[in-house]
Amino acid sequence: MKVIGIGASAGGLEAITRLVSKLSNGSGAAFVFLQHLSPNTKSMIGELLGKHTSMPVTMVYKDQPVKANHIYVMAENKNIVFANGRLLTKARPPESEINLPIDQFFNSLGESLGSHAVGVLLSGTGTDGTRGLRTIKEKGGFVLVQSPETAKFDGMPRAAIDLKIADRISPPEELAQDIEYILTHRDFKTREVGFQDKKQKETYFDKIVQLVSKRTHVDFSEYREPTLSRRLENRILIRKCNDIQAYWEIIQQDATEVAALFSNFLIGVTNFFRDPEAYDAIRKEVLPEIFSQPKAEGAPYRFWVTACSTGEEAYTLAMLIEDYLQEHDRKNVDYKVFASDIDEHAIQFALKGTYSLNMVADVPEPYQSKYFIREGDYMQVRPSLRKRIMFAVQNLLGDPPFINMDLITCRNLLIYLRPEVQQKALSTLHFALKPGAFLFLGPSESLGSLKYAFEKYTRSWNIFTKRADKSPKLQSSFSMHIKPANTEKSKQNMSSFQSDLHPSFTDTDPFTRFLVERFAPIAFFVTEELDILYLNGEAEQILNMPRALARLNLSKMLSKEDLLTFKAGIQQVLSEGGPISFEHVVLRKRDREFIAEVRFDLPHLPELYEKGENESTPKVILIEVYLPEESKEEDEPAPKNMTEGKVTTLQKQLKASKRRSQELVNELEATNEELQTSNRELMASNEELQSTNEELQSVNEELYTVNSELQMKNEELTTANNDISNLLKSTDIGTIFLDKGLKIRRFTPAVRRQFNLIDSDVGRSITNFATTFKGLDIEEVCQEVFSTLSPFEKEIVDKEGDHYLLRVLPYRTEEDYIDGLVLTFVNINELAISRNQTQKAERIFRQFVSQSDQQIAIIDKKGKVHFVNRVRFTGKKSDDLIGQPIYSYLPEDIRDEVKKMLENVFDGKPFERLQFSYDYQGGSKGDASLIIVPIILEGYIKYAALIEDID
Question: Which of 74, 80, 128, 770 has the most CB atoms around its CB within 10 Å?
Fold first, then answer.
């Protein structure tokens, strides 16, 4: 199935038409266009697209199957998804909820088609589409994005680019060419990865993986080959290479392609509250168990989110922990969430804590309002939650782990690793957990051969607890009947050892005993501590048999020189695990010497073993000694002459020299074996030191992470403090910051005019200081604001007669907690002077006008009355005409002429006088003249004065 999803928003129509005009009508694919549309306006996009392509264009109003070489457009009142080869319509959410149709379709496309999905994101505002493209990328599909500089609105393209998920960033015309190339060269019939030439793949695949591993310092040979192959094939198609060899030639020279392939290999699979039911189990079952365990004073609870990608899972866990502690009134409990990933870009993204609206869509509404701050099209994690998480770049397979964890989550990482590497990772996580602590794996992951080291905690989800009595090292589950010798058993004789064994040859028939004594070599079984468990043959020829009850141990039955030889042989066979043989060994017993061959072996004796869980497994070593037929030297015949005598003497000397040389060789070999033994002990000690060093490195890494975050916080605080200090010093507004006890936290220099404060007064109560303001009770005002939580504002005057505006506001923290007050004293002296002057001028004006015999009215351009001193032509009072048209009380025969005069005045023309007659209320007549004078305010005519003069 070939389905191409194409999403756009504002400005997307132009981009869509540019893309469609370059698509052929015979690609065999179905193209589905999704755009943000008004549900109340019929969309014309279908008709518009039909002018740029010969493919049929269909608006999707109902469910329907997709057909090749067709274009489908989402209707204005529907959302659509893809499943089982069909487009399914969905009701749009209410207008009060966020609608993300592009994300919804891309998600369904990625889930349905996997590595065959292709998502294209064009011009648009907001961030819709990025989450769905991430799903397509996770499944191994292709993500194509319009280059921001060619988009009218670059919000959507940039959101996808910022997440580093775009395989190709190009103008719409070039994206069309990329689509055509993918459709032509990708095999859509099977999900199996197939390079054109299998031999080429064998030649160049490992080379490419090694090159990326070398350049990025990440060993991708530990990842599953099918996953790497699929993502490598995507890059080969995107770069339009004919085969893997051509891609190999490109990647050797192009560092940006190495980075792109590296990014493809490390696609993060994450989102907020992934598998909500699993996190519900964490909250209801795991967290209560963790926080029920007491901690040492000052020790925090520790959580580790491995492979955290862009941080959604880490913030999810922190929200659950924070909510649980608040719900159970345990706000003082300290905890840390460590979040690590191998991708430095992803860690930088997580550190910002800024996510698009569609990425936060999975967060339940109560958590959104409680732990996020809306900033346009993005949501910012609140600092109070962000400070609980420590992000770090870390390779789980190579770097030292964090330790003493109460809970570790490792989801959707192990499935990308080879089985043996999975066990290595799980062993690391086992080491990092405290006994009884929790491990949370993804639904597709398992413990494999390390099941014995964990116990299943929940049936529905992969949540396990660490078994304290099990080690993740793979060990045999069998132990021997025979226990290592200890101080209490050191006095046991041969018969006591034989009692633990099956019947010896002494219990067999005489014929078997005769053959064993005749043909079997001298042999004995010993433990690693050299205790003899069984003897056969004439061992007394080489062993000094003890008398009475004594410990049968080679250290007591051999000379020092012979003991070195036997110890060396035993250590070598234990280390190498197979039979070894020493030839021409000189053995001594008191005054006699034997040239012998000594063989050492680790026999397989299943009847001596039994299952055991807590018992060590001692080794039994078989030692065989082969003596020549003539064990004693024969007397040499007397020499016939002097020459023969010399020869005989020289031969004896030669034999003696050979024996001495052999002795030296044996001693050197024994010494070498002892040195090897010491070396192995040193290596063991070194491994212990390395383990300790790794723990110290883990602690150092945690401290480094904490230090880095503290440095960042310190820089931010320094900058903020500098800004505040400069603001406080430069402002002419007197300001005092008080705590809840009315103690001074900080003040500006300007406030010293009213309060005699110095720097050392910080921490003292404001009530201890006298003020220059008349009748001001600071304590009473402050207590009123505390009780009402409403701002207080009042104009006050100091002893010198200067006017100030006092404002008292509650001091609110980021958590909306009232932690004090802020007092400001704004000098409004000039405002008070201007106000007094205005009031004085108004009084003079009103007194002058009121005493005038003339009728004076102030009107605006529309003739509405704003002031009138008296009314002559109507029985109404002056106040009744305020806000009424002036024409309503003028004689009817002059109203039109007055309107014309008013227009001329506002147009800047010279004003004229109008003579007219009027009737008194009593019936008599009178004459009057009228003139309209402009009133200029702020540079333009705002009002006019209509003045009547009575003749």
Answer: 128
Let me know if 43 is exposed, middle or buried by CB neighbors in 10 A (0-12, 13-18, 19+): middle
Tokens of 241: 């290479």
pLDDT tens digits along 179-200: 888 888 776 655 444 455 666 6
Residue position matching structure tokens 């110890």: 567
Q: Check residue 743 and report its DSSP letter.
A: B
pLDDT, tens only, 829-886 = 788 888 888 888 878 877 777 777 677 888 888 888 888 777 665 556 677 778 888 7
622: CB partners within 8 A, 6+ apart: 523, 524, 525, 600, 601, 602, 603
The secondary structure element, H or E, covering residue 345 is helix 344-352
Q: How many CA atoms lie within 13 A of 323 on its CB side?
A: 18
Which helix or strand (DSSP H or E) is residue 855 part of? strand 855-859
118 DSSP β-pair partners: 4, 142
pTM for the structure as a whole: 0.48
| Contact criterion met (CB below 8 Å) for 302 and 405 | yes
Q: Who's near 219: CB < 8 A, 6+ residues apart? A: 213, 397, 398
Q: Could you give the dihedral angle defined by the CA atoms of residues 443, 226, 142 and 112, in that order, rounded to the nearest 10 degrees?
A: -50
Residue 941: half-sphere exposure toward Cβ, Cα within 13 Å: 18
Take residue 102 and report the two structure tokens written for it. 């592009």
Mind listing the pLDDT tens digit for each residue in 374-392? 887 788 999 889 988 989 8
Could you give the strand order of the β-sheet that contains 78-83, starting from the edge strand earlier in sequence?
64-65, 86-91, 78-83
Give one DSSP letter per residue of 869-926, joined into a string.
Answer: S--SSSSS-HHHHTTSBGGGGS-GGGHHHHHHHHHHHHTTPPP-EEEEEEE-TTS-EE
Cα torsion 447, 448, 451, 455 to 10°: value is 30
Q: Residue 381 and residue 949: Cα distance in Å, rounded?
A: 74
**144 with 168: CB under 8 angstroms?**
yes
- Distance CA(719)–CA(713), nearest Å, equals 10
> CA 26, 31, 36: angle at the middle one, nearest 5?
155
What 3-state DSSP class applies to 879?
Answer: helix
- Are 161 and 130 in contact by the 8 Å Cβ rule? The answer is no
- DSSP H/E element including 4: strand 3-8
Q: Are 371 and 385 in contact (CB under 8 A)?
A: yes
CA torsion sign for 396, 398, 402, 405 is positive
C-alpha dihedral sign at 859, 865, 866, 869: positive
d(CA 142, CA 123): 18
Of the candidates 770, 803, 806, 816, the residue with the CA atom closest to the CA atom of residue 785: 806
The three-point CA angle 54-58-62 to 5° equals: 165
**CB atoms near residue 466 (< 10 Å):** 22
Integer angstrom CA distances of residue 455 from 437, 444, 471: 10, 17, 13
Q: Reduced to 3 states, what is the DSSP secondary structure of residue 224?
A: coil
- Is residue 76 a contact partner of residue 38, using CB atoms and an 8 Å limit? yes
Among residues 451, 424, 428, the alpha carbon closest in space to that of 221 is found at 424
Collapsing DSSP to helix, strand or coil, 396 comes out as: coil
User: Which residues contact residue 331 at a Cβ distance below 8 angstroms, ignoring those fewer than 6 apart?
Assistant: 325
Amino acid at 650: L
How many CA atoms does the CB half-sphere of 273 hold within 13 Å? 16
- For 88, phi then psi, to 5°, come to -110, 130
Give the per-residue SS3 of 379-390: EEECHHHHCCEE
Rounded Cα gap, residues 22 and 121, in angstroms: 16
Radius of gyration of the chain (CA): 48
CB 471 within 8 A of CB 443: no
Say how far apart CA 417 and CA 576 lie, in whole Å: 32
CB count, 10 Å around CB of 692? Answer: 10
Number of neighbours of residue 737 by Cβ within 10 angstroms: 18
Using the 8-state DSSP alphabet, how is residue 589 labeled? Answer: E
Q: Using CB atoms within 10 A of its CB, is residue 232 exposed (0-12), middle (13-18) or buried (19+)?
A: buried
